[in-house]
């Protein structure tokens, strides 16, 4: 058994040194993470949480070495073979729970942590000293989730569940079709199906259903005070300042969108909508057949009709290779292949992760890049 000295790096202070030194006993190599006001050390049989607010180390015995270490701005997280543990830097406390089921995922951001297994969902926040749980909907398995600092989100094929950190409750939402994906980002959570999107607002603690009608794909974008969801011809824009969604249905074929910080923007061939606190519309007055506006910026000519379903062998122009993650999803929203689905990719979306050809039917191709996610329908025809 060896003794390892651990020192936290610190900046010189005028009045006193903020350096903290501990010695820990370890049967193997120690491991650690740090973020915001939290430092976390796994020393095999013990864990140590450090708070920058109190300048204290707080120990915790472990039943087994940590399998996962995470840290948010105020929380540190450890999962062992049997337990999930959350270190709270605001009060120097550890919160532990023996989990049920097989682990599927976890995430810690800001002051909120979530963990999901095959049977149970767990959520906790900096002002709670217990894990709040809810069972997975009967007959389903979570396929994704995440934390946004003030709330958590987990989704299965037919349901979305939000952990509302303020009251410490899980709030469920039934979906109108198979869930194709989800995002927990800043002040808003989003999940979507082939025809709809559902948003969770942690300020209100409620879900909102956004019906986009018949569409070949659903796209979402958002980070900060704004968010956008759109299909082929209908769109909704969200203002976090006003706490409301604004419909936008007269734009024609929507060509794209982007949202970050305080500004959301999406556009069609003839019109653009700018969302900054409140939505504003801009007419795009271009000469017929022109590919440039009066400022000399390029425009892509609009499609004459909605994009048709993709056939086998086609690619989806949704992300450049290396820019983000992609996946092929089956009709129930389960991932059957992970890989780049952008142009130039050497991977075939119509094959499983093992390389076997997928059976005939309808699939969904998903691409993620820089706060934007798009899903498009694809069809494999029978021989």
Strand content: over 45%
Radius of gyration: 24 Å
How many angstroms does the end-to-end distance come to?
64 Å
* SS class: mainly beta
Sheet having the most strands: 8 strands, antiparallel
Mean pLDDT: 77
Low-confidence stretches: 1-19, 289-323
The number of E-state strands comes to 34
Q: Numbering strands along the chain, what is their spatial order in the largest sheet?
A: 26-25-24-23-34-33-31-32
Give the % helix: under 10%
Global geometry: globular
Number of domains: 2
Give me the number of helical elements. Answer: 0
Structural features, described:
It is a single chain. With 383 residues, the protein is an all-beta fold. It has 2 domains: 2-283, no CATH class; 326-380, no CATH class. Helix content is 0%, strand content 50%. A hairpin with a 4-residue loop joins strand 9 (83-88) and strand 10 (93-98). The radius of gyration is 24 Å and the shape is globular. The model is unreliable at 1-19 and 289-323 (pLDDT under 50).
């Amino acid at each position: 058994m060896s003794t390892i000295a651990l020192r936290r790096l610190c900046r010189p202070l005028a009045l006193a040194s903020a350096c903290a030194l501990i010695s820990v006993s370890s049967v193997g190599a120690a491991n650690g993470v740090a973020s915001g006001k939290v430092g976390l050390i796994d020393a095999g049989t013990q864990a140590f949480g450090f708070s920058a607010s109190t300048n204290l180390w707080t120990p915790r015995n472990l039943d087994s070495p940590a399998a996962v270490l995470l840290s948010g701005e105020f929380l540190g997280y450890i999962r062992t073979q049997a337990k999930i543990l959350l270190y709270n830097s605001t009060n120097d406390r550890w919160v532990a729970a023996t989990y049920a089921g097989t682990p599927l995922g976890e995430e810690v951001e800001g002051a909120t942590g979530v963990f999901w297994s095959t049977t149970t969902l767990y959520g906790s926040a900096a002002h709670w000293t217990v894990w709040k749980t809810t069972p997975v909907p009967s007959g389903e398995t979570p396929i994704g989730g995440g934390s946004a600092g003030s709330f958590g989100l987990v989704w299965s094929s037919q349901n979305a569940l939000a952990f509302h950190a303020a009251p410490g409750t899980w709030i469920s939402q039934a979906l109108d079709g198979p869930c194709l994906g989800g995002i927990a980002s800043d002040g808003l959570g989003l999940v979507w199906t082939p025809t709809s999107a559902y948003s969770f607002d942690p300020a209100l603690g409620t879900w909102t259903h956004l019906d986009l009608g018949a569409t070949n794909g659903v796209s979402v974008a958002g980070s900060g005070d704004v968010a956008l969801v759109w299909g082929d011809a209908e769109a909704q824009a969200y203002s976090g300042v006003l706490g409301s969604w604004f419909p936008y249905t007269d734009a024609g074929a929507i060509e794209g969108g982007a949202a970050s910080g305080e500004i959301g923007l999406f556009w069609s061939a003839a019109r653009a909508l700018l969302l900054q606190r409140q939505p504003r519309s801009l007419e795009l007055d271009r000469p017929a057949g022109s590919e440039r506006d009066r400022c000399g910026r390029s425009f892509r000519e609009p499609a004459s009709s909605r994009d048709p379903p993709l056939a086998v062998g086609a690619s989806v122009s949704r992300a450049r290779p290396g820019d983000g993650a992609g996946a092929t999803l089956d009709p129930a929203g389960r991932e059957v292949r992970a890989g780049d689905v952008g142009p130039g990719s050497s991977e075939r979306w119509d094959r499983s992760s093992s390389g076997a050809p997928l059976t005939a039917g309808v699939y969904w191709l998903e691409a993620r890049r820089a706060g934007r996610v798009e899903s498009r329908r694809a069809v494999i025809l029978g021989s």
